[in-house]
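Hi Y.,

Following your request, here is the sequence exactly as I used it, all 414 residues.
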Amino acid sequence: MGANLSQLKINNTEVPFIFEENKNLPIVSMQLIFKNTGSLSDTKSGLVQLSAALLNEGTKKEGSVGFATKLESRAISLGTHAGKETFVIEVGSLKEEFPYAIERLKELLTDPNYTEETLSKIKTQAIGNLKRKESDFDYISSLELKKMLFPNTPLAKASAGTVESVESIKLVEIDKHLGDHLGVNNAIVVMGGDISQKEASAFATTVLSLLSITNSKEIESMKALGKKQVQEKIFKSEQAYVYFGSPLNIAYDSKERHLAKVASFVLGSSGFGSRMMEDIRVKKGLAYSAYSRFNINKTHSYFSGYLQTKIESGEEAVNSVKEVVEIFLDKGITQEELTSAQQFIVGSEPLRNETLSQRLGRAFQEFYTNKPLGSSVEDLKKIEAIKLEEINAFIKQHKEIADLSFSVVTGQKG
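Below is the corresponding structure, written out as tokens. Let me know if you'd prefer a different format.
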């Protein structure tokens, strides 16, 4: 049957409600998704991630262990996580336990575990994670690339924060951030399972009624810079970690997204058989893996990729990436590559759409990107109908991806 979209009326506010009934298993799940509330809304680096961590520590009354015990005894999952643009609270359980699960969610929203002891605990965990990342060369190289592409923007900051920023975050800042952003006017409800739409609406309404109206700002759009630069950092590394990126002038609601998907697939996101893998690993033996993709988001779009190679091969790998991209832009793709991409993308569709959570996730993405629910099916038809001249004309229009910046974390050459 598929998901459908309606509106829940909460006082004078309409909240989008995405729902799919599915009786295959006796389970129910609900996501409260808050827009403009992800890590890109950080007023201090790491604040949003820490706010999500605090909401995973139960209520002030029950404490972390007491609240978790209540959930575990009835096999209820209740968790919070933050993306770049959204903040998600998710609850799921067996159908018979869902009313109880909703009551626990309401407790969490009205009595979060705002204590200094809890804050100290999650800070210690966050700082420990950041310390481990100091020797994670993939993380370092990836973050440096973001700083090169998006200087002086939220994308240039680590979403997990720094040791110093995390240490400085206070309870009042978390309270203010959640109070300013978790508003009924920011909410989208995504719900499904063995439950009627009427019952689901009633549960969602009782939760949403606890939320107030907030004045959070839209996350501003960010544009990648194309500076054609190479930045190298020397560590005690046995390998060179090469991350690269460039501007990509494709909007999240572009009518050419289906063309972008196929172009990205052929250039570098399809694994073996992609241009990146074939040229850099198979032909030249420069890397175990080489990957690239078109990142198209609501607030930012850019082309990016990575590879790992020997220290002495770093420079050759950088030049090879440039060459692959230039040939791709100059000559486009072949009919064989187009046909192969079309067959794979359309043929693998059932695997990406077989579970309820996958279908609800897709429905949310369609809504979030201003498309009608079910438009993914139409996109597949568009992909099937792509002609070689059409996609090659599209590729030639995006010369900006050749303005590549490289972040290389490497070791001393022998």
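The chain has two domains: 4-208, 230-410.

Thanks again,
Q.
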